[in-house]
Specification:
Blueprint lengths: L6 H7 L5 E2 L2 E2 L4 H30 L10 H4 L7 H32 L5 H13 L2 H11 L2 H4 L4 H23 L3 H10 L4 H12 L1 H17 L2 H5 L5 H8 L4 H39 L1
Antiparallel strand pairs: 1-2
Helix pairs in contact: 2-14, 4-8, 4-11, 4-13, 5-8, 8-11, 9-10, 11-14, 13-14
């Protein structure tokens, strides 16, 4: 029986290592794991050291001693509340406009015009290629006066900036589901397009929509160039202006906004996981 089996296969069955030209093959996984660990360590050092330096500077006074003065003094600073709530309003409006615009568009392209996906990929990548200063100067020159006098002009421009991230997130979510079957089943049961989009497609795109929402909010809360050229004091603009008066407070606001974005991302991920677990339990129960 053993003579009918090739030597290499026979050695593999016995747990041995096949030899090639008299030299045993060495496993490469430990070396790859070592390089992965080195890359992750370098990336962690690259990101964590500046964060540690910013947090340490935020919790120190001018004498270098530990102090909570900068954190406690943030709400009472002139202009902070107005800048903070303006950024929140812009983030909310931008998120709603982006989701309302991109979900039907991406769904229609996947269903009816799949050949245009490459064109849409190219079009949505343009906001990364075009500098924000060029984009906002063109918008300010072409927009009517009543729109230029409103801060929500920034929301319209932020929608353009968020297109590369939002479209790719939705495109990945749509590619992961059987979109055509779901739509045909809903339409065969008498569902209209709006109800199909709301009750069938959006629940299946929950994870993609949540990730697109987080990316949009993070972009709006961190954008500086367009807001400063449009002469609106958003949170990043206020941080830059106030850093000339008190660097400790400005740095503390920056660190808190970064931590707040992380907390928001963690909450959204946890909510999505809990809903996914509930859905699995209901499916298993049925």
């Amino acid at each position: 029986m053993a003579s009918l089996i090739p030597e290499v296969a026979y050695e593999e069955m016995l747990g041995g290592v096949p030899e090639v030209q008299g030299e045993p093959q060495r496993p490469r996984r430990p070396r790859l794991r070592l390089w992965r660990g080195i890359v992750l360590l370098l990336a962690g050092v690259y990101f964590l050291i500046p964060l540690y330096a910013g947090l340490r500077f935020s919790f120190q006074n001018d004498a270098g001693q530990f102090s909570l003065y900068a954190v406690k003094a943030i709400p009472s600073q002139t202009g902070f509340s107005a800048a903070f709530f303006l950024s929140l309003r812009l983030a909310a409006v931008t998120t709603v406009l982006t989701i309302v615009l991109m979900v039907p568009t991406a769904t229609y392209v996947h269903l009816k015009l799949p050949k245009l996906r490459r064109v849409l990929d190219f079009v949505t990548i343009l906001p990364i290629v075009i500098p924000p200063i060029v984009l906002i100067l063109g918008v300010l020159h072409a927009a009517p006066l009543w729109l230029r006098s409103s801060p929500y002009l920034l929301s319209l421009v932020y929608v353009i900036l968020a297109l590369p991230f939002v479209y790719r997130s939705l495109d990945a979510g749509l590619s992961a589901i059987d979109l055509k079957t779901l739509v045909e089943a809903s339409r065969s049961l008498g569902g209209k397009w709006i109800s199909t989009l709301w009750h069938v497609i959006l629940p299946n795109l929950r994870a993609a929509t949540l990730s697109a929402t987080v990316l949009t909010i993070a972009l709006v809360l961190g954008e500086f160039t367009m807001a400063s050229l449009d002469l609106w004091t958003t949170l990043p603009v206020w941080i830059y202006q106030f850093s000339q008066l008190d660097a400790h407070i400005a740095t503390a606001v920056s660190m808190l906004s970064l931590l707040g974005t992380w907390v928001l991302l963690t909450v959204i991920i946890s909510v999505d996981r809990s809903q996914s677990r509930r859905t699995r339990r209901r499916t298993e129960a049925l």
